[in-house]
What does this fold into?
Amino acid sequence: MSVILAVIGDESAAFDDTTIGRALTSMGASRDDRVSIWRGAGATLAVARQGWEMSPSFSGEALIVTDGEIAVAADASIYYREDLRAALAHAHVAATGPTASHLILAAYRAWGADCAAHLEGDFAFVVWDAKARTVVAARDFSGKRTLYHSQRERGALVLSSTAGGALALPGANTALNLTVIAETAAGLWGGSAETCYESVRVLQGGETLTRINGAAMRLHRHWSPPAASTRDAPPFEEAAIELRRLLARAVTERLDTEGDTSIWLSGGWDSPAVFAAGASALDASHSSRKLLPVSISYPEGDPGREDELIREIAARWNANVHWLDIQNIPFFDNPLERAALRDEPFAHPFEMWHRSLARGTRATHSRVALEGVGGDQLFQVSEVYLADLLRTGRLAELSREWKAKGKSGSGFRNFFGWAIQPNLPRPALAVARALRGGRPLLSYLERSLPPWIDSRFARAHSLEQRDRIHAPRITRGSRADRETAWYLSHQYFPRVFGAVSTFAKEEGVEIRSPLYDRRVIEFALTRPREERSSGVETKKLLRASMRGLLPDSSLATRAARTGVTGGYFSRSMREHLPAMVDASFDHSLLESAGVIDAIAFRRAVSEYARGVQSNFSVGLYFTLQSEMWLRSHVAIGTSSALEKSPALHAAVRVEQ
It folds into this structure.
């Protein structure tokens, strides 16, 4: 996969090519990659790229692009290139070459530090302007390409594709940030720019970093979701036609230009919409290229099974499905070794699930995999809209909606959580907290601490407060609109998207998400809530946009959600978790550092393995992964990691 490294400042000259090469290797570069190291006044830029990414469909053959005193290092796929070239021409700038890096450099010439706002694609890049002594770095809002930054003691700024890339340079501060490790172990949303290393920060999704002449860095958002508004929105049928057009264009822009493209096809509505829009566009253009479905088969009776729906959808376009059997996909695969290879303790619970899909893509001889991410965020909404009905006095509609959803017999507590609690003012929430012995009323978008997290550590490090502070503060619009904006703004999701994209790149595949297209997003935010959820109907607009392109039976309203992966998760966890905990939690480092109560954790694991339902099952996974990561990294870490963290130093002494 492409990795980039930049050292900005006079210290850049101190690192020879061998040192830079080692840093690239630490980020995943292999001996077969193409590597370029560029040196200019006050900066060193380096790129390593796999051979398949040299294609014009990906980052392209130019590793580092220069034009005069400007140099660009990028890991990027840029879409809507003709629109971008037209905008550049309007600004009297022309790209000097065809690759993504050439387009980024031209955008910098046209718009300076605001260039990322004019780019549509999946990207992370660094621009060094020697004449202006300015560095500009940016990451796309989805966060599929990762970028980290670290300020060194002598003033140099390091930017790298992974946190470990910055730490691989001699003299780096490798001290661990125990608070972030604890947040990860607790399964909290996080959302700050901090990482598990004191000296490294993540450049967040949709963010641009600017530093001029060695002064303090400036961080600003180059994209945020616009406020939802239905003013002047077209009628439903016209909107369905427009959504079909937008989605077809979004898919077309993301197809591999030199071969077939795979689609990770489920039996739901999101990835089938991507599949149908793309297949229709290819048919209309008489292209010989194909969309090739890759799907996971679940046994009969499993809540994840959608095999019959998938076959019906694929048959509509005469496509053969490349099937993967969920029973052949391990949930845990050499977890200790994988923990040691990760830069950070965060582990994606469905890593092997995604890796298997990427390998399925390679089995179809494709390098690009489309997916349906974005449909849930944009085209449906939770029951929080009931709070809007209560707040605006639409009581008759509220009653009808509650009954239509089959909620009328579910009790007052459920009704309170969805309809009443979101409307409570701060003073009322404070009173509720006092009456509950200091336990706050949590919304459905907030996570509570698992019971095995040490309460003294949590208070001392303000874990719950940090989780709230770093969540996006969205005050405009209805509760339903705020939910959508929250999903598009919270930095937890770029973290997840970046991880999944990295898994795929390591398997030789690039993931692209047509529904997570800026134009599709901005259009979706103009549509009324009723199209997202009303009674038992959800995703009404998305389904209507696919009429005639997907079988009517697959677009019909469903009595219950299909394609649920919870069964795979719970079966795997209950089968393997106890033995893994027994192997990893003798003299727990997390407990020795004061983060957890290991007895309480073991008790929770035992209960879960016996089939007891838990609200913290995902927390069990994150705590286990954090323990394994901490053990492997403290074991190979430098003395500074321990000296600057007395709790970890004491924990290691206990372990030894």
